[in-house]
Amino acid sequence: MDGAKVREFFCKIIREDEDVSVGVAAIRTLMEIIKHSKSETVQELETNLKDGINVMKNTDYPVTAINSGCELFLRFITLAALDTRCFSDCKKIMLDRGHLFIKKLDEARGKIVKLASKFIEDGSKVLTHSRSRVVLQALRKAHKQNKRFEVFVTISAPDNSGKQMCKELQAEGIPCTLILDSAVGYIMEQVHFIMVGAEGVVESGGIVNKVGSYTMAVCAKEMKKPFYVLTESFKFSRLFPLGQQDLPEEYKYTSSVRKNSDLKKVHPLVDYTPPAYITLLFTDLGILTPSAVSDELIKLYL
Amino acid sequence: MDKTKTSTDGSSKKEKKHHKKQSKDGQLEANLAENEVSHGCKKEIVNKTNNDATTGTVAQKLSEKELRRIEWEKKLESQKGITVTSNDQSVGQQPSEKELRRLEWEKKLQEQKAGDTGKETLSKAEIKAKRREQQEAQRQAKLAAENAKNAAENVKKVAATTPIKDPGKGLGKVEKKLDFPKKETKKTTDVHKVQLVQHLYAEMPQKKVSKLLVYNNIHPAFVKLGSQYLNKTILGSNARTLALMAALKHLIIDIQTPPKQELCRHLETVLQTCTNHLQNCRPFAVSMVNALRNFKLHLTQVDTNLKDSEKKAKLQDVIDVYIHDDIYKAGDAISLKVKEKISDGDVILIYGCSSLLKKILVDAHKEGKKFKVIVADSRPLLEGKEMLRRLVVAKIECTYIFLNAVSYVMNSVTKVLLGAHALLTNGYVMSRIGTAQVALVAKAYNKPVLVCCETYKFSERVQTDSFVYNEIGDPDLLSKIPNTEDPSPLSKWKENNKLTPLNLLYDVTPPDFVTAVVTEIAILPCTSVPVVLRINAIENT
């Protein structure tokens, strides 16, 4: 598979299936690369995969999830490669494992939703930021359990993805109010907790998410409101940002923006929320405190 | 030197002036005397003698005046001839001695006349008796006046100078000294020990004892190492561990298995005595304990069927691998990781001296990163000077400050890098005393704090304060001020039982103040220490 094909395949998945997150799409693409690869050695296959990852990173989709998902997948494969002799066997094992991996990923969201929906109580008011598929499903699930609650959604500039979130919630019959990004402080005192998704979870236990999450987390901390993050474990990445400045550029800006313009004048897409502001992370590994993220990462990668 | 010369010249000049003044006028001197008591000590001694003389005469004069007045009044009473106005006048004008004598003489003449002409004639004997009475009264009055005057003078002197001449208090002191010496000798062991860290004094190395020790069964390399630890010529956990490993290699080369014994078992016992000796010189660092544990583990695993020379080669290999992998390679890996975090224009604050930090900064500088370094330092060891020297040699732009200026510079700092003595299971960082303060200030200013630490310094201990496990350094170091000729005001602390300098060597920094720990494995939050320990334990077994 050459670069153009990889790109096409990757974009097609995302376009066709609204419910698939970018990370999963990336992993599916990698599986496709393995399937069609004509390489004869593990080494060659790995370079093929890395080329594919680079192609995906250069699309305008958020890099955070692509990065962590692919890293995890590669790790999965290198471990598999160690215990086989023949390359064709190895490839077969990789594909089997890959399918298993994807299956597990598909189940992940269900697990999170199950865990998180218990935290939504009757009569509670929830604040959420931007659009997150996991949060949406968790709210949906709670609604189906006949819990009565109210949701506040930020518009989330610049792409106004909050509007879509609000529409989807209202379609479900969940009472929902769209608020301004700048009204986070105003609304904070009346909500009971905050539920957001994440594009990536970093080594420190903090999250990388749509810009504005940090503001919300700081505000929540000050008002003593719990700040919950709903995220799949494949979004865990081995990155340790010390602050907003330390966040990689490829995370903050799309590839086309990075090539063309003066970055100081472009709005960043994501910000980094340090672990101190996060109450709990709901993942398919269970409900974790921020400090447990690093433990899980060490277990995965060492 | 020049300064001291000029100062002595100045003081001698003053003294000369002073002498001139003294010779000028006694009366003036008496008035000035009070003021001059507050001047320098030397002057005071000169003054004192003078003072005594002058005040003495003044007292005499005054008392004479008074006495004469009294006398006069008495005579006036007895002889109502002289008017009261003249008396008032004389008191107001303070008549000179001549006048007084004249008046007295006149009075006496009048008295005699009266006696001659008066109705009550007195015999010569009676007059003599009367005079004797008067003289007696005069003498007593004089004494009383003088005493009063002296007492007043004494009080003034006490107020101006420190020594207390009160006989009562002096006696009390003597009594105390007589009462307490026995108790004091008993207490000397407890005196100068801080209650909170009593348990740490037991571990304190005792210099005298170690000199007298007969080094039985202790390898010379360890004897040397012991004295180096004791004198703090080898400082820092990395350096200490490396030195220990080097000594261990010497021991392995030189050891000879006694007949009917196995090398490794014999080595174990020998090593035990050697390490005991080292412990007596200075308590082990966590890194040393870990390194030794690793070696002992391998010692038990050596194949007993091998020849001695092969065993030795294997053991030496173990040490080399440990030094290479866990210390040097780990340092390289950490350096690489920190390098990513150092960006152009950074101002990096470091504290004290750390071989690892030096390596990191020099590596980053070689890479072409443009950053400034602020070296914070603290007494008594002033390790920061060595760090500064090393960084300046590497041509890194540096600023040198003391710990108390950290909050001042923190505003301009972008990152804080710290070394560590050990990382504890609960995420606390054990490091050079003062590190916690730096981290605290950094936290207050929202600056990222990176602790650089190899995983071989991770410890299973849990500690939330710096008292349970610590090390006490030489308390004399606190009272000595380097590079000054003046003796420190604290130099005689041993004589004051109420004064106890406490020189702790380490403190613990809570994980709240630390953004991340950079290890060779990854950049981790402090809280991940137990996971790393668990994984290392699994790998080793």
TrEMBL record, chain A:
Keyword terms of this UniProt record: Cytoplasm, Initiation factor, Protein biosynthesis
Subcellular location: Cytoplasm, Cytosol
Role: Acts as a component of the translation initiation factor 2B (eIF2B) complex, which catalyzes the exchange of GDP for GTP on eukaryotic initiation factor 2 (eIF2) gamma subunit. Its guanine nucleotide exchange factor activity is repressed when bound to eIF2 complex phosphorylated on the alpha subunit, thereby limiting the amount of methionyl-initiator methionine tRNA available to the ribosome and consequently global translation is repressed.
Keyword Cytoplasm listed: yes
Cytoplasm listed as a keyword: yes
Species this chain originates from: Acanthoscelides obtectus
One Pfam family it belongs to: IF-2B
GO molecular function: guanyl-nucleotide exchange factor activity; translation initiation factor activity
Main location: cytoplasm
GO cellular component, one term: eukaryotic translation initiation factor 2B complex
Coiled-coil segments: none
Classification lineage: Eukaryota, Metazoa, Ecdysozoa, Arthropoda, Hexapoda
Binding partners and assembly: Component of the translation initiation factor 2B (eIF2B) complex which is a heterodecamer of two sets of five different subunits: alpha, beta, gamma, delta and epsilon. Subunits alpha, beta and delta comprise a regulatory subcomplex and subunits epsilon and gamma comprise a catalytic subcomplex. Within the complex, the hexameric regulatory complex resides at the center, with the two heterodimeric catalytic subcomplexes bound on opposite sides.
Protein name: Translation initiation factor eIF2B subunit alpha
Family recorded in the similarity comment: Belongs to the eIF-2B alpha/beta/delta subunits family.
Domain of life according to the entry: Eukaryota
InterPro entries the record matches: eIF2B_alpha/beta/delta, elF-2B_alpha_N, IF-2B-related, IF_2B-like_C, NagB/RpiA_transferase-like
UniProtKB/TrEMBL annotation, chain B:
Segments passing through the bilayer: none
SUPFAM superfamilies: NagB/RpiA/CoA transferase-like
Basic and acidic residues bias spans: 36-46, 62-78, 96-136
InterPro entries cross-referenced by the UniProt entry: IF-2B-related, IF_2B-like_C, NagB/RpiA_transferase-like
Region (Disordered): 1-154
Biased composition (Low complexity): 137-154
Subcellular location: Cytoplasm, Cytosol
Broad class of the protein's primary localization: cytoplasm
Gene3D superfamilies in alphabetical order: Translation initiation factor eif-2b, domain 2
Biased composition (Polar residues): 47-60, 80-95
GO cellular component, one term: intracellular protein-containing complex
Top-level taxonomic group: Eukaryota
A GO biological process held by the record: animal organ development
Subunit structure: Component of the translation initiation factor 2B (eIF2B) complex which is a heterodecamer of two sets of five different subunits: alpha, beta, gamma, delta and epsilon. Subunits alpha, beta and delta comprise a regulatory subcomplex and subunits epsilon and gamma comprise a catalytic subcomplex. Within the complex, the hexameric regulatory complex resides at the center, with the two heterodimeric catalytic subcomplexes bound on opposite sides.
General function of this protein: Acts as a component of the translation initiation factor 2B (eIF2B) complex, which catalyzes the exchange of GDP for GTP on eukaryotic initiation factor 2 (eIF2) gamma subunit. Its guanine nucleotide exchange factor activity is repressed when bound to eIF2 complex phosphorylated on the alpha subunit, thereby limiting the amount of methionyl-initiator methionine tRNA available to the ribosome and consequently global translation is repressed.
Family per record: Belongs to the eIF-2B alpha/beta/delta subunits family.
Protein name, per record: Translation initiation factor eIF2B subunit delta
Provenance organism: Acanthoscelides obtectus
